Amino acid sequence: MTARELLRAIRSTLAHGIGCVLWTVEPVAIRLRRFAFECWARSLLRGRVALGVQFVGLITVEGEGLVDIGPGSRIGRHVFFETYDGARIEIGRQVTINDGVMIVAYRSVRIGSHTMIGEYSSIRDANHGARQGAYVHDQPHDAAPLALGEDCWIGRGVIVCKGVTLGNGVVVAANSVVNQNFPDNAIVGGIPAKLLGERQP
Asked: Which domain range does residue 75 map to?
């Protein structure tokens, strides 16, 4: 065995031993990290956050932070919450909000229990004004309440616009733009989203 092969064998054996040690303490490290994320989130949010809500990573909160989260829900990494003018974001029980989701409320946003929201989706109940004669960023927001029913599945990269109400059990295909209401158990997709089918019993 050459010196290079010996060094490679020693390095691999050492890496294996360190990996085994880390594997035994990983559950504790994960729990400590999640506890730190929960402390951070609870320091930012001004709403009612139930016991047992799981924060997988850091979140960002802008505005008043009026966000209610029901028990058993899971909030992914880099989720962005924004509330203004006394508006609330209400999240039900056992809701999954995956990484990079943005939720903005100027009137109200309600997300029903057991709903799942895919990565990098945008759920906003307001748009900037766009009249001529004034800069867009100087114009007041045009807002209307937004509601997602229970047991909805919102695919990755979906945009849900102001004033939209989705019934219970609605499935939205990835990268769709939802700008109208849909009834219970509808399967929708496209830009703008259209009815594609219905969930079967």
From this structure: 45-198
Q: Is 97 exposed, middle or buried (0-12, 13-18, 19+ CB in 10 A)?
A: buried
* Spatial CA neighbour of 186 closest among 111, 178, 120: 178
142 in any annotated domain:
yes
**Using CA atoms, how far apart are residues 47 and 105, in angstroms rounded to an integer?**
13
C-beta neighbour count of 171 within 10 angstroms: 21
**8-state DSSP, 17:** H
| AA letter at 152 | C
Residue-wise pLDDT for 140-178, tens only, equals: 889 999 999 999 999 999 999 999 999 999 999 999 999
**What residue type is 68 in one-letter code?**
D
Give the model confidence (pLDDT) of 63-88 as tens digits. 999 999 999 999 999 999 999 999 99
In a domain, 87, yes or no: yes
CATH of the domain at 133: 2.160.10.10
In the block, tokens 């059990």 appear at 169
d(CA 52, CA 80): 20
| Whether 22 contacts 4, CB under 8 Å | no
What's the structural domain count of the chain? 1
- Please tell me the pTM assigned to this model: 0.85
3 found inside a domain? no
Residue 63 near residue 84 (C-beta atoms within 8 A): yes
